[in-house]
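can u do me a favor
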């Protein structure tokens, strides 16, 4: 998330609210979300096969959690003026590394 684009999180939140009311927008956003999830899932499968992450993690469930954590950055940025996403990226990275770590 880039500080030079301060309105992006609020726009993302607004699009989500509008999608709740607009089936066409919901379908478009869902398609994009499905593509992103598919990409993350594929990356996780490759990382598990290469021994880089815990192979016991279900790739689909893990992708859902990774995406939820990233979405939380947008939500927090849009709703909390004191939240600084760039400052939180090291914490997010640490959380993901510990979550994905191969035992």
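np, heres the sequence
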């Amino acid at each position: 998330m880039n500080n030079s684009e301060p309105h992006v999180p609020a726009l993302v939140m607004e699009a989500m609210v509008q999608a709740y009311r607009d089936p066409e927008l919901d379908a478009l956003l869902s398609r994009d979300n499905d593509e992103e999830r598919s990409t993350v899932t594929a990356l996780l499968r490759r990382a598990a096969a290469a021994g880089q992450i815990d192979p016991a993690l279900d790739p689909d469930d893990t992708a859902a959690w990774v995406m939820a954590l990233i979405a939380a950055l947008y939500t927090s940025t849009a709703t909390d003026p004191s939240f600084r996403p760039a400052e939180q990226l090291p914490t997010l990275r640490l959380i993901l590394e510990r979550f994905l770590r191969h035992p």
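The CA atoms of residues 10 and 79 lie 8 Å apart. hope that helps!!
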